[in-house]
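Regression check, alpha-D-glucopyranose case 437:
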Amino acid sequence: MNNLLSKTEYERCVAETRDERMKWWRDARFGMFIHLGLYSVYGKHEWAMAMENWPIEEYAKFADDFLPQKGCCREWAKLAKQAGMKYMVLTTRHHEGFSLWDSKVNSFNSVNYGPKRDIVEEFVQACREFDLKIGFYSSLMDWHHPDGGACAFDQEARIRFTKYIMELNRELMSNYGKIDILWYDVAQPMESFEGWNSLELNQMVRSLQPDIIINNRSLLEEDFQTPEGRIVPAGRDWEACMTFNGISWGCLDSGRVLPFSHSAQQIVRMLYEVTKESGNLLLNIGPKADGTIPEEAIEPLEAVGKWVKEYHGFLYGRTDAKQIIYHGTSNLTYCDNKAYVWNFFWPEKDRTIYIAGIQNRLKKAYFLSDRKEIAFKQDEYRIRLYDLPGEEEDRILGITVICLEFDGEVTYWGRGLNRHATRYPQLNYGMVYQKER
Ligand code: GLC
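Current build output:
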């Protein structure tokens, strides 16, 4: 690639456009990950080929039974939309090296084998039909390509393999219209961005898709961090990717995996965890080999969508807090002059919720669902929301959101502290402050 920018120049250019490119992504909060590949036929785990040391040609035979039905991508997109998700990321080619598109550089693909169709094309059409942003997962590691391992120690193999990866991603960036996210995975066996020619690779990507957002897994920082299997905020844009069951990204037998699968309440809890630290949640489903959605994911995602709608999608956009008020049963996110109380356990006995640690004067408190006002008192120690209904307001999931409007930008002292804490900053973690002597 001529006029290749140096790493410093490239990262400066990318940083200049990041806020504009990522505005939709930062507001989106919630996306669907789709893991579909030959592992969906085998049904044990997407790493089974490696972990069980399958001979390549034997594992490749699963392609004969890889038969995603027409319309399955539409079903995924419909459920994602119902769940309140704003984007989808599909495994276009996972580690087993099987491309789900009509690739001219990889004959091991879904047009030559299995469904004899371009699944990526169908996925893109479905995303556009449901107004969902489009993400392509693209594995760097490849267990099928003859140079996929040798590239680690053979320079010629490395040149051939990185060119192969370049051309695979060139096809994806060229043949399907505007693509919004490129989600690399597993930069193995080379362990440096130089080894992967990531600078050249990503400058090619961005030249074809100038608005694209790229994750940090080609060993360049790029646009966002990708904590996996745990919700850990990063000091910059970040998205936690989570399986639906804590076991596998690929499909598993629904009956047997159900006890391990997330409930709607657990998904909302994860949405709270990412919202409070300005992150995104990319929640995975692993469709079966015929493309059908795993049963255990349907009802929870539909219920989460109803909950999100009940609360007018308040979790989108910047409701992120600068700090968090931990109350366990009621946690808060806040931004500007509003705080949102996420109540996970309704106070049926005393019908009162106490909120300490906020310095501002409370002007109004109401249920976010229907804006029904709530009686409150505020003193130097805390806010008391009282005379609450005996039953929790939201019967969809038992997770109620209350909005508190203050007289100015919310200022928070710290966990459970009161105004004295400003004089005694060592009083943290909710130590009760005795009245001044
Ligand atoms: C890990 C796994 C891979 C999965 C990815 C999703 O990298 O190796 O199988 O697709 O996580 O983030």
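Comparison notes: Residues 35, 46-47, 185-186, 228, 241, 249 surround alpha-D-glucopyranose (CB under 6 Å). The first strand starts at residue 30 and ends at 34. No diff flagged against the previous build.
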